[in-house]
From TrEMBL:
Biological source species: Candidatus Phaeomarinibacter ectocarpi
Alphabetized InterPro entries for the sequence: P-loop_NTPase
Name the UniProt record assigns to this protein: Uncharacterized protein
Length: 604
């Protein structure tokens, strides 16, 4: 597109803007320009979205005023090049100067709806909120561009900023008093002469709170949970992240975890929060950049990651802690070092303080959780976290099954927030020493399952993960390269001889933990078989063990299907009918009778 045409269109729009700034009403000639500009942007936006690119015919270079048809065609190019901000700004000023002109208003409204309003002009936002104060659809679009205000508030005066805050709160349509109270507090601080350096952070926080309440207006509990966090100058990115569409699609248990993870990451990095770019990955996703072919390359882009049952938070910043996430996944020997590095770069965490106070008020202790893989532990953990409204934390273990190790600093986070963490750590001497004598964990929930039946679940599960398993995890599992080429029976044979002993060792270590004199932690063994038999009693027994009031827990609905890789629907003794006589004989030889007796599986 010739530059002269592009500049010519913008010149007409700027001319309109300048005219409106020097006169209360526009002259007829100026109105003609305004209407043409309106049609340029509106028709261009509509045509570009409908794919009507062929509608524009080649234009001849001209030194005179372009015709209306030519402006329409060039408007398409204007839209395609993403240069809408200046055009819409001119139209919004024209609409304010001529409030009775329906043509301008309609063109502006159509353009907003067609483009989604991906703009960054503060004055434009204020104009649109005035022009369309009774148009809910347009106001919803206007609300989407509240975020750019955050980046410019530091250079705006107190009085003007307060007005913009009120506008943002109005656009957010907040039903409660949280935002109003925060705005009043801000104005009071302004009046008291709060330093210029501190005020902008508070303003940004209030704007973020308004946007949060708009996005999560149906989730009053979530908004209330962060009422206190709003007062923290470091919570801006937390609130922005919480307003993301990803969070709205999550269940309550996942929200509880993700809102903590975002808050934890931002507060850890304090004043550097603006440099972070958080994103959410649902359980099962490969944490890697879209352009990466090797997930291990993620190490070069991450400085902080928390792996949790419900999801993963990755904060991208190549300047610090470059190997944090991959270290936790692949090298248990360095897990503690990664946590120490995070701690060294941490600031006080208001979210942990908030959850600690809430947990103490409700007399809810921390709830450390160890789950035998393929025992339904993901469902149980998610149900406990969601049902008690507790924060859940990743990072309490490092490595990969069966070699997970207890991560000290990760547990410090769990204890500080009185939360929970889902782990698969083994009861090795080192892990027991850390959990017991060193950290003094009083009570521990350990979820178990008959290894003979768990083997059937692994038989279904292992082929699903073998195809996308990273090389280091494959070494932990000791899978042969040809495993996926095995027949179904050969895969079962391999699992019996190579994997069943691993499962037996894991269970046997936790059996012996209860008999170890120096390990004084009380263990509640929660059995998968009891969960299937009587789910309500299963959870009530856990609450009684931790001395938690039953009224504080919301009982989960009974799962109707497995879920992604987490819970196989099978009988508690189908291993007897789904294996050959020879396989059953080898299974019975590998699983010791005293293990079955200890856990109460000797009758199955």
């Amino acid at each position: 597109m010739p530059v002269t045409w592009f500049n010519k269109i913008l010149a007409y729009m700027r001319k309109t803007l300048d005219a409106n700034k020097t006169a209360k009403t526009a002259a007829p000639d100026n109105m003609s320009i305004e209407k043409r500009a309106a049609e340029v942007v509106s028709i261009g936006a509509t045509a570009s979205l409908s794919g009507d690119a062929a509608a524009a015919t080649p234009l001849q270079e001209d030194t005179g005023e372009p015709t209306l048809q030519e402006l329409h065609q060039q408007g398409q190019m204007l839209v395609w090049e993403g240069r809408l901000a200046e055009g819409l700004k001119s139209l919004s000023d024209a609409a304010l100067a001529n409030p009775d002109d329906e043509a301008i208003r309609n063109s502006l409204s159509q353009t907003l709806q067609a483009t989604g309003l991906a703009l960054s002009d503060d004055d434009l936002i204020a104009n649109l909120s005035t022009i369309f104060r009774d148009d809910a659809d347009v106001l919803a679009l206007v609300d989407r561009v509240a975020k750019p205000l955050f980046n410019t508030l530091s250079s705006v005066g107190v009085e003007q900023t307060s007005d913009q805050l009120l506008t943002a709160a109005s656009l957010a349509n907040a039903s409660g008093d949280i935002v109003t109270d925060q705005i009043n507090e801000l104005v009071k601080r302004d009046a008291d002469g709060l330093s210029h350096r501190q005020v902008p952070a508070t303003r940004r926080t209030v704007l973020a709170a308004a946007r949060l309440l708009k996005t999560l207006q149906r989730d009053e509990e979530l908004a209330a949970d962060f009422a206190e966090v709003v007062a923290s100058d470091q919570s801006l990115s937390v609130l922005e992240a919480l307003a993301s569409p990803t969070l709205r699609k999550m269940d309550q248990g996942s929200k509880t975890e993700m809102r903590y993870l975002f808050a934890r990451a931002v507060t850890n990095y304090g004043s550097r929060s603006n440099a972070l770019a958080p994103r959410v990955a649902i359980a099962g996703d490969v944490l890697k950049d879209r352009k990466q072919s090797d997930p291990s390359d993620t190490a070069a882009q991450l400085d902080f990651g928390i792996a949790g049952t419900q999801g993963t938070l990755a904060v991208k910043n190549a300047s610090t802690l470059r190997s944090g996430f991959v270290t936790w996944q692949n090298d248990p020997a360095e897990a503690v070092q990664a946590f120490e590095a995070v701690k060294a770069n941490s600031a006080p965490d208001p979210v942990i303080d908030f959850y600690t106070r809430q947990a103490r008020q409700q007399a809810i202790p921390e709830l450390p959780f160890v789950g035998f893989p393929r025992s339904g532990s993901v469902f149980v953990f998610s149900s406990l976290v969601s049902g008690l409204g507790k924060p859940s934390f990743g990072g309490m273990m490092g490595g990969a099954f069966p070699d997970f190790v207890f991560a000290q600093e990760g547990f410090n986070v769990v204890r500080a927030g009185r939360g929970s963490s889902h782990t698969h750590i083994r009861a090795s001497r080192m892990n027991l020493l850390e959990m017991g004598p060193r950290y003094g964990i009083k009570k521990l929930l350990v979820m178990v399952r008959d290894p003979r039946q768990a083997l059937m679940s692994w038989h279904d599960f292992m082929p699903k993960i073998a195809s996308d398993m990273d090389p280091v995890q494959a070494q932990h599992y000791n899978l042969p390269d040809s495993f996926l080429d095995f027949s179904d029976e050969e895969q079962m044979d391999w699992l019996i001889e190579n994997w069943l002993p691993v499962l037996v060792t894991w269970l046997d270590e936790w059996k012996e933990a209860s008999r170890t004199d120096w390990f004084e932690t009380k263990i509640h063994y929660a059995r998968f078989e009891d969960l299937r038999k009587d789910q309500e009693k299963f959870f009530l027994d856990i609450l009684d063990f931790f001395e938690i009031d039953h009224d504080l827990f919301e009982m989960p609905t009974k799962p109707t299907k497995e879920g992604d890789r987490n819970f196989r629907q099978g009988h508690v003794d189908s291993w007897r009918t789904e294996t050959s006589p020879g396989q059953r004989s080898r299974i019975e030889r590998i699983v010791p009778h005293d293990l079955l007796t200890f856990y109460g599986w000797d009758q199955t």
